[in-house]
Specification:
The chain is about 55% helix and about 15% strand. By secondary structure, it is α+β, with helices and mostly antiparallel strands.
Amino acid sequence: MMLEAPSRSHAIDLEGYAKAIVTYIDDDDYPMSVPADFRSGDSEASVVLDPISRPPDMHPGRRVTVIFSHIKPVEDFGYVDRRYLTVEGRLEPKGDVFEVKAERISGWDESVVPFFEYCERSVGRGRAYLESLSRTEGKEIQPRLPLLWKMFLATRAPFLTATVIPVLLGAAVARWQGYSASWFTAVALIGASLVHIGLNMLNDYFDSVSGADQMNVTPTPYSGGSRVLQYGLVSEKAMLGWGAGLMVAGCVIGVVLSVFRGPALLAIGGIGVLLAFFYTAPPLRLAYRGLGDLAVATGFGPIVVAGSYYVVARKLSIEALYASIPVAILVMLILYVNQVPDRNADALAGKNTVAVRFSREAILRGYAIAAAAAFLSVVIGVAIGLMPTLALLSLLPAPLAIVVYRGMRDNYDSPYGLMPAMSKNIALHGLVGTALTMAYFASAYFSG
C-alpha cells in the first residue's frame, strides 16, 4: 500500500497512466498544481517530468508530489479500474526537463486490493492522524455519531431475526398444542433480544481484546464485527459496559418470568446465557476452540425454542425441541458461512473456527450436508407426527440453499464476492423459520 525509502524492488510502474499532476507549495505558501507529460527515469524509482507550463517558482530543489490516477466510468454502474500512484521527491534538472527520484511512494490499485479492503487498511493511519491532531490542538478530536446510531451499529440489531424466529416458533408450537400466553411471549421476546444484542457487543469487545477484529481487513456487513471499536466510535470500556448491562437486563426479565411461569425457565435461560457469554469470553472462548457453531445452534435453536414454549405452556415438549432442529441448523449455517471471509484474520488471532480448521472442500461439503439435514428433519418430523403437515411449506425456500452453496463455491476466497451468498443464507433462515412458525399457527387455527 505504501512504500518508504524506495529500492530497486520498489519500481514505479507507470503503465496505464496518461498524464501526471505535479503539486507543490509555492513561494507564497499557496498550493499549486501543474499537469505534465512523463516517462520513466533512469532508475526504477524515478520519473522524468515535462511540465506543460513552468511557473517561475517551479525550480530545481523544489519538493513536489507527483500524482498519477486512472478511473473508468461505467454507465448506470459507477466506476471501475480505479488506481492511483503518488511519488514524493525533489525536482532535479535533466536537460530541459525535470527528474524526481522517489523518496516516498504510495498508491492503490483496485485490481490488487478491493476498495473496501483499502479503506480498512487505512483505518490505522486515519486514527493515528486524529491522535496527532488531538495532541496539536490540545483536545480530543474523534469521529462523532449520535449515541443512538452508535448503539444501533454496536448491537448489530438486524441480526435479531436469529432470536425473534425461535421465540415465535416456540410460542407457535405451544399454540398448536392448545396453549396461549401472548403477553408472556412478548416479554420473553424482549428479554431474549436484550441478551442477544448484549452478546453481540460483548463478542466485539472480546474479539477486539484478542486482536481478531483488528487483524481483519476484509470485513463485510455480515462478518467481521460491528467495527465501531476499530473506527474509534466507541471505547472498549463503553462496549463492555453496554454489553454487560444489556445482558443483565435480559437476565432480570428471565428471572421475573420464572417467578410467574416456573423455575425450570431459570435452568433453560441460564444455559443459554452461559453459552452466549462464553462464546468469545475467557476462559472457555468456545468460538476460539471451533465450538462456536455448536454453541450458536444450541443457543438459538433448542434453548430459545424450548424456553419460549415453556413460557407459554409451563412445561417442556419433545415437539418443541424437534421443531427447533431445522432452525438451529440454519442459524448455525449463518455463522458457518460468515466466518469464511474472516478465516485468515481469525487464524492470526488464534481463533480456530471451523473455517480455519478445515479445507475449502470440507467446508463446502459440510454446508451441503447440514442444509440437507435441516430440510430432511422437516420431512421426517411430518412423517412421524411431530410436526403438522403444513410444516412442509418450509421446504419451499430450499432451492436458496443451492444458490448459497454455489456462491460459496465460486467466491470462497473473495470476501466481497461472498456477500450475496451471505445475504441469501440469512434470508434462508428467515424464510424457513417464518414458514415453520406460520405453519404451526395455521395448523392451530384450522384444528381449533
